[in-house]
């Protein structure tokens, strides 16, 4: 075993006791690494029995990212060490394919990636026979998330070795990271044309199809992977996920129930299956399923919230209060959690608590008509009639579609054209009540009052109300309003002097 391999293996052993797997959307991995892991990983899967979704453990050995096809909800050290051993088996294969100078290895082991890049570049520039180092250079760039530079390195290598499968696969990975999906598909397809059993290329193609919402193509690949025993649980879960995203809930339910049966520790499958039961309004099964997972993971806020929502829709309001309170106590309460908590209190005849929670919800979102409505009802039960009237009125306004205001404005204009000014004025007032932020309505009301009513002080007030809220109104309207206020005040002054 080379010194660098020992260093890497020791580092992985250290990670086994300190690191957990982390989820990625577009995993990067080398094709040969992935295949080696899948073939050797069969026993690891049976040991852990906890496949969830695609996850990778990142390592800096030659800047590679090693993909594992499982996300372990509770990754045991035993299974993690098995993975380490599998990775170690592969390393010697990689070195045989494209070895690098000891000086570069030393820099990589010390985490000096930029220095190793410079050294590799100097070797390549010194002699064209070192062109194979473009592969190592590209992998280092990948580990540094410099995927554009990685692409340039891999493309350069392909000029020398156009059929290099590992290079095409790595290039496809970086293209995925750059969201150049069409280019990524070309390289993965190239790999599969020459190696139809390449699992890494198939998985990445499926990921791209999912991102493009081409679920049919993605599912075709997952059905192929279903035939590989080590991939069965993952493929079943992904088939269920795709079917769910397509809105084919019955199909998704079948796949996910099979997944949960084969792998009881697959948390994500249980949550997704719970959502399907919830959508079908089968709240009893949803409660049973998510409640079982919540016993295993009592601190998971996503489970706590989902369970609270299920209880609310099942009308188990007293129990739901406990779970909404937990979410709020953890500082994660949005207007919706406060609203649901307030509604729970209202439905169990505790209007004082209902009003308190609903007001907190209203502070977070004052546009919600339902919140305003139940604040009104709660205060009605508390004999606070003024507040009840205030919020019930707000509920009417906030629950009315915005185009209703426009309808009243058009009716007002119609009545004004018919010289029915009193009716026109009433319609403008109704429009303003529905949409108080439309300051031009105040302008139209002021114009009518100015022309057809004798109360100059009230006319001035309408003009001034318009001006005070007219930041986005037409400047000509503001100028005219100011002109009319001045003229009305001049006429009032002259009339007063004449009377004296």
Describe this entry's structure for a reader:
- Helix 13 (249-262) packs antiparallel against helix 14 and helix 22 packs antiparallel against helix 23.
- Helix content is 73%, strand content 2%.
- With 500 residues, it is mainly alpha-helical.
- It has a 3-stranded antiparallel sheet with strand order 1-2-3.
Brief rundown of the structure:
This protein is an all-alpha fold and 500 residues long. The chain is 73% helix and 2% strand.
Which whole number gives the mean pLDDT? 80
Structural class by helix and strand composition: mainly alpha
The CATH superfamily of the domain at 407-499 is: Tetratricopeptide repeat domain
Number of helices: 26
Poorly predicted runs: 1-97
- The helical percent reads over 70%
Share of β-strand residues? under 5%
Major beta-sheet overview:
3 strands, antiparallel
Task: Identify the notable features of this structure and list them briefly.
single chain, mainly alpha, Serine Threonine Protein Phosphatase 5, Tetratricopeptide repeat, elongated
Q: Which helices and strands, and how do they pair?
A:
Blueprint: H1 3-16, E1 22-23, H2 31-48, E2 55-58, E3 65-68, H3 77-97, H4 102-109, H5 113-126, H6 133-143, H7 147-160, H8 165-177, H9 181-194, H10 199-211, H11 215-225, H12 232-245, H13 249-262, H14 267-279, H15 283-296, H16 301-313, H17 317-329, H18 335-347, H19 351-364, H20 369-381, H21 385-399, H22 403-417, H23 421-434, H24 440-452, H25 456-468, H26 475-499
Antiparallel strand pairs: 1-2, 2-3
């Amino acid at each position: 075993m080379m010194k660098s391999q020992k260093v890497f293996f020791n580092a992985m052993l250290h990670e086994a006791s300190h690191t957990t797997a982390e989820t990625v959307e577009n995993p990067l991995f080398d094709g040969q690494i992935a295949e080696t892991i899948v073939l050797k990983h069969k026993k690891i899967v049976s040991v852990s029995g906890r496949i969830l979704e695609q996850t990778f453990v990142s390592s800096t050995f030659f800047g590679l990212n090693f993909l594992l096809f499982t996300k372990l909800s509770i990754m045991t050290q035993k299974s993690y060490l098995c993975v380490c051993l599998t990775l170690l088996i592969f390393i010697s294969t990689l070195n045989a394919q494209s070895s690098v100078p000891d000086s570069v290895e030393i820099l990589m082991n010390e985490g000096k990636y930029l220095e190793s890049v410079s050294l590799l570049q100097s070797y390549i520039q010194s002699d064209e026979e070192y062109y194979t180092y473009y592969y190592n250079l590209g992998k280092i760039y990948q580990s540094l998330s410099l995927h554009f530079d990685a692409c340039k390195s891999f493309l350069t290598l392909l000029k020398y070795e156009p059929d290099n499968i590992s290079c095409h696969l790595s290039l496809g990975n970086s293209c995925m990271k750059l969201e150049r999906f069409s280019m990524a598909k070309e390289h993965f397809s190239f790999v599969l044309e020459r190696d139809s059993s390449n699992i890494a290329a198939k998985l990445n193609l499926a990921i791209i199809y999912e991102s493009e919402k081409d679920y049919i193509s993605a599912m075709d690949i997952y059905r192929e992977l279903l035939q590989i025993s080590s991939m069965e649980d993952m493929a079943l879960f992904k088939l269920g996920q795709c079917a769910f995203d397509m809105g084919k809930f019955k199909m998704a339910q079948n796949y996910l129930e099979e997944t949960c049966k084969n792998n009881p520790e697959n948390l994500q499958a249980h949550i997704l299956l719970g959502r399907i039961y919830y959508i079908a309004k089968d709240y009893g099964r949803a409660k049973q399923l998510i409640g079982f997972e919540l016993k295993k993971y009592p601190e998971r806020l996503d489970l706590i919230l989902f369970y609270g929502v299920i209880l609310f829709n099942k009308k188990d309001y007293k129990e739901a209060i406990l779970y909404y309170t937990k979410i709020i106590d953890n500082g994660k309460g949005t207007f919706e959690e406060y609203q649901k908590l307030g509604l729970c209190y209202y439905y169990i005849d505790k209007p004082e608590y209902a009003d308190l929670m609903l007001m907190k919800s209203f502070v977070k979102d004052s546009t919600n008509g339902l919140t305003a409505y139940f604040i009104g009802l709660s205060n009605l039960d508390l004999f606070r009639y003024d507040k009840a009237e205030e919020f019930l009125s707000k509920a009417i306004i906030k629950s009315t579609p915005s185009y209703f205001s426009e309808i009243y404005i058009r009716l007002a204009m119609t009545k004004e054209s018919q010289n029915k000014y009193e009716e026109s004025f009433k319609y403008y007032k109704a429009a303003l009540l529905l949409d108080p932020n439309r300051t031009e309505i105040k302008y139209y009301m002021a114009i009518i009052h100015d022309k057809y009513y004798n109360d100059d002080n009230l006319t001035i007030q309408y003009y001034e109300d318009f001006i005070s809220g007219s930041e986005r109104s037409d400047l000509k309207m503001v100028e005219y309003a100011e002109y009319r206020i001045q003229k009305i005040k001049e006429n009032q002054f002259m009339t007063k002097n004449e009377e004296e």
